[in-house]
């Protein structure tokens, strides 16, 4: 078993759990604010997640008190899995012993009061758990430890585990305003990454991802950075040219393709991509009449189901009725508040017969 520390706000938890399950884990279950457990993980995909920032092997769960955390650590023998090399460490023994026969590794303890929901002193917990490790022959190294013990407290529970990975993503360095081509309303990189994982997660990193309303190319930038082959199109020449400029900057070492095309009439053969993702033009921004917007979404979803088994559509309203009429199964739908006048509706769609 493993546990995930979720990124973002409380309102992002449902999206974060779904993203992790689609792209990097199985049986993901929320257990407390900002925390979820998982039965299995894909080690190669942890670093691609947008709304998970730590993954640990789960030693156990207990009450959210220092005493309970210490007792759990003292009484537990755990299997620790790291980078696919398995080793067993016993806290019960006189030392933390490794089956690899290597010297006792250095350890750091990190305690978190997740979203400040627990009545706990993290500094006190770190000292107490560190004392347990030291008494069993471990060396503490807070700068470059071999192992990291993480104790996460949320509400009335504590999860204890050995860190596998922390997700280090430079979302801030890819701000939409820093791109060669920028337009107001561009999607934040973290959100774009999450939507890519929702759409293409089961087939990453070998997926081919299409955005038929490519805009400034933010979704495809994130898809390309996590290994996908990316294709984009836009009905406006200005957007297609601008998106190409942005992809040229961020995906300069890999192949990509941008072309001008209407999303309702794509020059692509059936079943040529793994996932389609598009952000519907918002009515007031795009000045598209309501009936024309409905026709656009219907046509785009009809084309998407022809060329791909999975799709994620982002809009300022729900389109699950249209998606269902076209033939998609709506596997998940989320609402994400962006600001006072905009709430995004994210639809995860799957064609009949596609792998779950």
From TrEMBL:
InterPro entries: RlmKL-like_Mtase (IPR000241), SAM-dependent_MTases_sf (IPR029063). Residues 178-342 form the Ribosomal RNA large subunit methyltransferase K/L-like methyltransferase domain. Keywords: Cytoplasm, Methyltransferase, RNA-binding, S-adenosyl-L-methionine, Transferase, tRNA processing, tRNA-binding. GO terms for molecular function: tRNA (guanine(10)-N2)-dimethyltransferase activity; tRNA binding. GO terms for cellular component: cytoplasm. The keyword DNA damage does not apply. Residues 89-105 have a biased composition (Polar residues). It is found in: Cytoplasm. Its main location: cytoplasm. It catalyses: guanosine(10) in tRNA + 2 S-adenosyl-L-methionine = N(2)-dimethylguanosine(10) in tRNA + 2 S-adenosyl-L-homocysteine + 2 H(+). Belongs to the methyltransferase superfamily. Trm-G10 family. Catalyzes the adenosylmethionine-dependent methylation of the exocyclic amino group (N(2)) of guanosine at position 10 of various tRNAs. Acts via a two-step process that leads to the formation of either N(2)-monomethyl (m(2)G) or N(2)-dimethylguanosine (m(2)(2)G). This is tRNA (guanine(10)-N(2))-dimethyltransferase. It comes from Haloquadratum walsbyi J07HQW2.
């Amino acid at each position: 078993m493993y546990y995930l520390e979720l990124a973002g706000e409380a309102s992002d938890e449902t999206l974060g759990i779904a993203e992790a399950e689609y792209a990097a884990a199985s049986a993901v279950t929320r257990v407390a604010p900002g925390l979820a457990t998982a039965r299995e993980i894909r080690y190669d995909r942890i670093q691609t997640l947008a709304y998970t920032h730590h993954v640990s092997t789960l030693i156990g769960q207990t009450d959210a008190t220092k005493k309970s955390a210490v007792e759990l650590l003292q009484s537990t023998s755990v299997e620790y899995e790291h980078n696919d090399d398995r080793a067993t460490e016993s806290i019960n023994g006189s030392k933390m012993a490794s089956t690899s026969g290597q010297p006792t590794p250095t350890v750091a303890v990190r305690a978190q009061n997740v979203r400040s929901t627990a009545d706990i002193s993290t500094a006190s917990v770190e000292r107490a758990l560190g004392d347990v490790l030291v008494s069993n022959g471990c060396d503490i190294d807070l700068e470059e430890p071999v192992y990291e013990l993480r104790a996460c407290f949320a509400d009335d529970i504590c999860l204890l585990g050995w860190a596998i990975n922390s997700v280090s993503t430079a979302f801030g360095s890819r701000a939409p305003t820093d791109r060669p081509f920028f337009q107001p309303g561009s999607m934040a990189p973290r959100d774009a990454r999450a939507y890519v994982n929702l759409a293409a997660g089961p087939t990453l990193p070998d997926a081919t991802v299409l955005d038929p309303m490519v805009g400034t190319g933010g979704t495809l930038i994130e898809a390309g950075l996590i290994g996908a082959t990316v294709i984009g199109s836009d009905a406006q020449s200005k957007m297609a040219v601008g998106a190409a400029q942005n992809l040229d900057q961020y995906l300069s070492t890999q192949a990509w393709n941008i072309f001008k095309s209407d999303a309702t009439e794509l020059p692509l053969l059936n079943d040529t991509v793994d996932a389609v993702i598009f952000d519907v033009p918002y009515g007031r921004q795009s000045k598209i009449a309501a009936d024309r917007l409905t026709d656009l979404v219907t046509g785009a979803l009809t084309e998407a189901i022809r060329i791909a088994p999975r799709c994620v559509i982002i809009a300022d309203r729900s389109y699950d009725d249209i998606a269902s009429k076209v033939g998609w199964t709506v596997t998940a739908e989320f609402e994400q508040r962006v600001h006072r006048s905009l709430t995004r509706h994210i639809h995860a769609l799957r064609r009949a017969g596609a792998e779950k």
